[in-house]
Amino acid sequence: MLIVNIIMGFDFGTKNIGVAIGQKLTCTVRPLTVLQSQSGIPNWEKIKDIYNIWKPVVMIVGLPLKINGDEQPITVLARRFAKQLKKQFPVVVEMHDERFSTSEARLNYFENHHNYLRSQQDIKINAIAAGVILKSWLNQSFRI
């Protein structure tokens, strides 16, 4: 029996939280959805629903740092989100540097969806950014 280890990635934000899934076997990822949050507080019921569907073994939360590597106010909130994930779910939760993930997500998005409205772009970009974070973590974790 082949066991596929699902990994879930999060691009944390105070208004939107992008979610992506991936798997270790093929090191592939895909954007999944964007969850709304209120002042940085996520809808935990929706996160539980997604967890129950996908049953990830690892969750990766993007660590938002300044370009020079310093922390910023959103960094504290992202760390708090990661700690809450650890308390709520029986999985490994790790933080991963997300610098430039939104820029890469925007580039990926515009290469494939240049005719969408701005509001649609922002929502999808959060999920794509979660995928970029997850792909970066997979690439770093499985280097030979």
Compact summary:
The chain has 144 residues and is of the alpha/beta class. The chain has helices spanning 44-54, 73-88, 101-112, 118-141, and strands spanning 6-11, 16-23, 28-38, 41-42, 58-63, 92-97. The protein has one domain: YqgF/RNase H-like domain (Nucleotidyltransferase, domain 5), CATH 3.30.420.140.
What's the structural blueprint in terms of helices and strands?
Layout lengths: L5 E6 L4 E8 L4 E11 L2 E2 L1 H11 L3 E6 L9 H16 L3 E6 L3 H12 L5 H24 L3
Parallel strand pairs: 1-5, 5-6
Antiparallel strand pairs: 1-2, 2-3, 3-4
Could you explain how this protein is built, in words?
The protein is α/β, with parallel strands linked by helices. It has a single domain, classed as 2-Layer Sandwich (Nucleotidyltransferase, domain 5), CATH 3.30.420. Strands 4-3-2-1-5-6 form a 6-stranded mixed sheet, sandwiched between helices. β1 and β2 form a beta hairpin. The chain is globular, with a radius of gyration of 14 Å. About 6% of the residues have low confidence.
The first-level CATH class is given as Alpha Beta
CATH-defined architecture: 2-Layer Sandwich
Instruction: Provide the domain count.
Output: 1
Spatial order of the strands in the main sheet?
4-3-2-1-5-6
CATH superfamily: YqgF/RNase H-like domain
Low-confidence segments, ≥5 residues, pLDDT <50?
114-122
Order of helices and strands: EEEEHEHEHH
- How large, in whole angstroms, is the Cα Rg? 14 Å
The CATH topology, please? Nucleotidyltransferase, domain 5
Distance between the termini: 25 Å
Q: Please give the count of helices.
A: 4
Q: Beta-sheet strand percentage?
A: 25-35%
The beta-strand count equals 6
Largest sheet: 6 strands, mixed
Secondary-structure class: alpha/beta
Q: In which range does the helix fraction lie?
A: 40-55%
